[in-house]
Amino acid sequence: xxxxxxxxxxxxxxxxxxxxxxxxxxxxxxxxxxxxxxxxxxxxxxxxxxxxxxxxxxxxxxxxxxxxxxxxxxxxxxxxxxxxxxxxxxxxxxxxxxxxxxxxxxxxxxxxxxxxxxxxxxxxxxxxxxxxxxxxxxxxxxxxxxxxxxxxxxxxxxxxxxxxxxxxxxxxxxxxxxxxxxxxxxxxxxxxxxxxxxxxxxxxxxxxxxxxxxxxxxxxxxxxxxxxxxxxxxxxxxxxxxxxxxxxxxxxxxxxxxxxxxxxxxxxxxxxxxxxxxxxxxxxxxxxxxxxxxxxxxxxxxxxxxxxxxxxxxxxxxxxxxxxxxxxxxxxxxxxxxxxxxxxxxxxxxxxxxxxxxxxxxxxxxxxxxxxxxxxxxxxxxxxxxxxxxxxxxxxxxxxxxxxxxxxxxxxxxxxxxxxxxxxxxxxxxxxxxxxxxxxxxxxxxxxxx
Amino acid sequence: xxxxxxxxxxxxxxxxxxxxxxxxxxxxxxxxxxxxxxxxxxxxxxxxxxxxxxxxxxxxxxxxxxxxxxxxxxxxxxxxxxxxxxxxxxxxxxxxxxxxxxxxxxxxxxxxxxxxxxxxxxxxxxxxxxxxxxxxxxxxxxxxxxxxxxxxxxxxxxxxxxxxxxxxxxxxxxxxxxxxxxxxxxxxxxxxxxxxxxxxxxxxxxxxxxxxxxxxxxxxxxxxxxxxxxxxxxxxxxxxxxxxxxxxxxxxxxxxxxxxxxxxxxxxxxxxxxxxxxxxxxxxxxxxxxxxxxxxxxxxxxxxxxxxxxxxxxxxxxxxxxxxxxxxxxxxxxxxxxxxxxxxxxxxxxxxxxxxxxxxxxxxxxxxxxxxxxxxxxxxxxxxxxxxxxxxxxxxxxxxxxxxxxxxxxxxxx
Lengths: 450, 414
Description:
The complex is a heterodimer.
Chain A: E1 2-3, E2 8-9, E3 15-16, E4 20-23, E5 29-34, E6 40-47, H1 61-68, H2 80-87, E7 91-96, E8 101-108, H3 113-124, H4 130-149, H5 151-164, H6 177-182, H7 185-195, E9 201-207, H8 211-222, E10 246-251, E11 257-264, H9 272-283, H10 289-297, E12 301-308, E13 315-323, H11 329-345, H12 350-366, H13 371-384, H14 389-399, H15 402-412, E14 420-425
Parallel strand pairs in A: 5-9, 10-14
Antiparallel strand pairs in A: 1-4, 2-3, 4-5, 6-8, 6-9, 7-8, 11-13, 11-14, 12-13
Helix pairs in contact in A: 1-7, 3-8, 9-12, 9-14, 9-15, 10-11, 11-15
Chain B: H1 4-7, E1 11-15, E2 21-29, H2 40-46, H3 57-66, E3 70-75, E4 79-87, H4 91-103, H5 109-127, H6 130-142, H7 156-161, H8 164-176, E5 180-185, H9 189-200, H10 212-217, E6 229-234, E7 239-247, H11 256-266, H12 275-283, E8 290-296, E9 304-312, H13 316-333, H14 337-350, H15 358-371, H16 378-386, H17 390-400, E10 407-413
Parallel strand pairs in B: 1-5, 6-10
Antiparallel strand pairs in B: 2-4, 2-5, 3-4, 7-9, 7-10, 8-9
């Protein structure tokens, strides 16, 4: 099976390359994205298996496995994948999200086949030596400690956990210290066996390489890998949010940090692009409403930003702000809520719409300059949404109306009822806030639990 | 007719095929190395987007964001920087704006006051990050009483006494050295070059050598570190942080490439390859991230080698011993021939990845202009690496990894 699509126009002279696509008999989807003006080839292998597919008691398995994918497989003993990559000037990396795990290689044109050899070997089987697993567990525990020591990361983890409740998106991708200590070779092997089959993966090859060469190399390395015998059980609880208004109050560092988590549709939902525009109107750039009010007029924050998760199921959006030393948290929080409420009622102006669209389009283009970014985008779209997802998203951004923006805000941004308000404030209580209404007891981790 | 870069070496244009983007970068020799008040360079740099004779800060941001253009003005160790990123079709506008920001700054006093307060808040916020706090202490030890020994934001005391006049005069001083300009994107160098020349050449962009004296004379060389060991208290937390390092060389020093190769042998390359990450993470599982550099911050001024990592308080001593062991082992025994060959192969192979995007090209062109080395020329870079011998790498290991010249900084949570 093969399909070829011409680049899709996303407006304003921007085109989105659509890769050639074919399927091996074992179910592996292959994408080829030829890019001629380069001497680089990158590969992105995306498995439709991330932290959302773990059992909660062994949270962190997908991420732990991602580490161990570099620790040994047939033909590549511990450390060999990095050494072989490095020797020819290449690089590799991997990322675990809730929805997927993605492995990347970048090589000069004459070495890219090494990436496929490695990916095929570790797709077939892993060599999980107990000593390597034990060492890597220590590394993961250090990674968890690193995140917990960072005031923003730790606040975000606490807010996500509270926002998503029992939904897997609320679990830390790294897991907890306790869950990571529970993960053994058997758990890792089972996760690999259940999810790391060719039928559950998309391989993108992008750069200065002909289709025939890609086909030849993919056939040589992957065609003989059998489909997994066992169908992986679908994750439970994804998209099942039961949001109420909750508050989290932490004490860490000398700077006040505010994080408001609210709802968001799945990334391929038609309401996603209008919400993206809404969040940009609110907090994207210096001319945005919250930047103007909190940073420039009231001067209570040094910076404000917005976030929107790009997930396969309904997830979260956020507004975050870092406070000036003498500012009052209640002023910050009230202003954020006011501006969201205003956008629920009053559509953005034509200038605001145009500004937000221009900024989002430019962000996308700048974020896809590098070949590996294009490979990641193509592989993720194919694995999690559909091949046309990036072009569809950009077209929706371009076409969405102010009324759609308001509708999306009404559907997803409800700071007073369906949200988690997270504060990380200086331990000394130096700031002049009145006590936030409805605050509940904080447990020993500084996280409100009910 | 000679192309623009030959006629006026400080104005450079590079065609980068692919994405429909253009980046415009202007560097003014200056930066933290030449400031007299801590924080002066950064605030003077940021002030460039706060108002011009034509527009106030609101109009500057609104006009830019209306066409999806980002405008960042700031300072680094050696330069003041204006950076505009936008879509290719907007290049004439971006060039115009860049010239306006550089030449027509109005330096409004109320914006200066606000930027000073914001920078002080940034300092406080960054100080909440244990690795940053430890890193600041490390730089202070390494570059005692020197501008490079402090954060780019300066200090709260420096920021508090900074005036808008200080910023204006600093900018004027930097401008006197002549702006270095680079434009990169999917565009025609000839067409862009003409416009660039008309905007900047008449306004003081000089051949690079004219500005040498200004650039070289701005900062004094750092004194040898005297405080060899420092332990600082961090806020309560899980990880301790370790920095070990010493002074090495500037970018134009003949040992630079040998130090680059030594860095890769030690662990400055991609992934977990290299003696120190191997020992710390792969063999002992002591840290998630273990960073190694041998020419960190090497530019006009002397750079440094640094090994940094975060680890549990219980394993901090083991990590320090392991790092020092590896540094001493390579100093005494030197890297093997195969170590150096592999490092060289890595550095040669990575060059295409340093030239993928318009902003990478612009930065390389500007480094070339500032440092007067053809940093953007891949063949030149690769030839320099090819000519380094194993014995030269062994020699730089002996010379720059001397434990008597190293500083150690430990950040330990309360």
